[in-house]
Amino acid sequence: MSAKPADQAMTPHLLDLAEALPLLMSPDTGAALERDEGGLSTADGRERFPMRGEVPLLFPAALLSYAGDGLIDVPFDRYNDALIQYALINSIKQKYGNHNSDHASVWYEHHRTRTRNLVADASGLVLDLGCDVPATSASVFPSRTRYLGLDPLFGDTKHFRLIGLAERLPIRAGMVDCACLLTSLDHVFDYHAAVDEAWRVLRPGGRLYLASLVWEERAELYRDHVHFHHFREAELMLALRHFRIDSLMRYPWKGDTHRSALYLAMTRQG
User: Fold this and answer.
1) I need a surface site. Which of 124, 145, 228, 262 has the fewest CB within 10 A?
2) Are 262 and 245 in contact (CB under 8 A)?
3) What is the dihedral of CA 211, 212, 216, 222, to 10 degrees?
4) Pick among 1.10.8.100, 3.40.50.150, 3.40.190.10, 3.90.1150.10: CATH of 106-268
5) Residues 6+ apart with CB under 8 A from 261
6) Could you give the count of Cα atoms lying within 13 Å of 61 in the half-sphere of its Cβ?
7) What would the pLDDT profile of 71-101 be if each residue is shown by its tens digit?
8) What is the pTM of this model?
């Protein structure tokens, strides 16, 4: 038998639906989910979540009827409910601009190297929030880990991951060893809720890994088609108040003087 290439040998195990199912719950009620003919449902059948291929759509039920071509697409005249308003704002950002860095760029390679160093001590089950293409994102993690990605965009249904909101994770409490927000938190409108949800699904003593740009000046958002936030460092630290910061690395970003990149490894407290 021929040996595996070095990069393949180092890839963690990517969970499939059968392996992920015991972790899952309704993002509305917290009830456990099981597989049925139409997708996933609660045991009493009152809550149902559809599949796109083998990819489950685990949005709150009020949003499922707006699941369009790869994203939640809320019409502009639907704004009578706070959650619908929230989804509408998200859908505007998700329709325009490039959400991910060019994988051929030197800055993306810098990010991958820095992330690989950041998560070198990760072990157990990793939940990657804003995972993009799971196989690519998973390749920076140690081979001893098990990897589960989650993303709100589902234009690509060839690769298994969970489709849902970082603010309403469809994961039972205390089930995850490591959670990651690797350049994804600034895409989340309610970033405090996303950090609190990461805390909830982590086991006590679990690890949170975060990478984000922070801005010292020129942080106006009206020029940005894609992100909801240009974080100041104090804003991030307030959101992370329930975590102990174990390491913090600061790097330059694209030669800019008005912003830098922070990479943090943290431990869940409480």
Assistant:
1) 124
2) no
3) 180
4) 3.40.50.150
5) 111, 114, 211, 212, 213, 214, 250, 251, 252, 253
6) 12
7) 999 888 777 789 999 999 888 888 876 556 6
8) 0.93
